[in-house]
Design a protein that fits this description.
five-stranded mixed sheet; 5 strands; 199 residues; 37% helix
């Protein structure tokens, strides 16, 4: 299991604690300068890509492009709204992926060891799963997971087979409904004011 984005090494520690003893999360390596990134399918030295790339800049796009090229199964923790982006459709066409996210509409709470970012995101995040094979294989895996987890009322997991399911789960609003930057800034200010009033 390979996570190319080193933060403080927590990914490797967590994966190893779950029994993935060959997990790699290389310290100090510039992923984008590596031979693995440049020649993904030729030199991939891992079985599964499992990553939570930084959401700033072009990291999401570059990580998805790498996932599409590497020829290995991938699990990427990304904002659910990426399902609306052209770069996502290029890397992961409909039918080649599914998403797993908390059933609750409460957003992920992220731990930022270096103090960067916000503890809670203003968007829903999901684990996107792809690279497992042709559509029939993805369908079979999704059906198996759904039979075990997705139809139970006592599970906190929501499985979404496509963008339409993410929209139905209110994880993706769709581009036409997304607030403009001024509206989003006003909403953030309002949330900050509420938090100040509650404290």
């Amino acid at each position: 299991v390979y996570d190319p984005y080193y933060c403080d090494g927590a990914a490797e520690r967590h994966l190893r604690s779950l029994g993935f003893l060959a997990a790699r999360n290389p310290k100090g390596a510039d992923f984008y300068a590596s031979a693995e990134f440049r020649n993904a399918a030729d030199v991939a030295t891992f079985d599964v890509l499992c990553a939570n790339p930084p959401y700033s800049g072009t990291h999401k796009e570059r990580c998805l492009a790498f996932a599409a090229r590497c020829g290995r199964p991938w699990l990427l923790l990304l904002p659910a709204y990426v399902a609306d982006k052209a770069y996502f459709a290029d890397a992961a066409p409909e039918g080649s992926w599914f998403a797993v996210l908390p059933r609750s509409t409460k957003n992920y709470a992220f731990d930022h060891p270096h103090g960067a970012g916000r503890p809670e995101t203003p968007f829903r995040a999901a684990w996107f799963v792809g690279g497992v094979g042709p559509t029939a294989t993805v369908d079979a895996l999704f059906a198996r997971l759904t039979s075990r987890l997705g139809r139970r009322d006592d599970t906190d997991v929501l499985l979404c087979r496509d963008r339409a399911a993410l929209v139905a789960a209110d994880a993706v609003r769709g581009l036409k409904n997304r607030r403009n930057p001024r509206q989003r800034a006003a909403a953030r200010k309002k949330l900050q004011h509420r938090a100040t009033c509650v404290s």
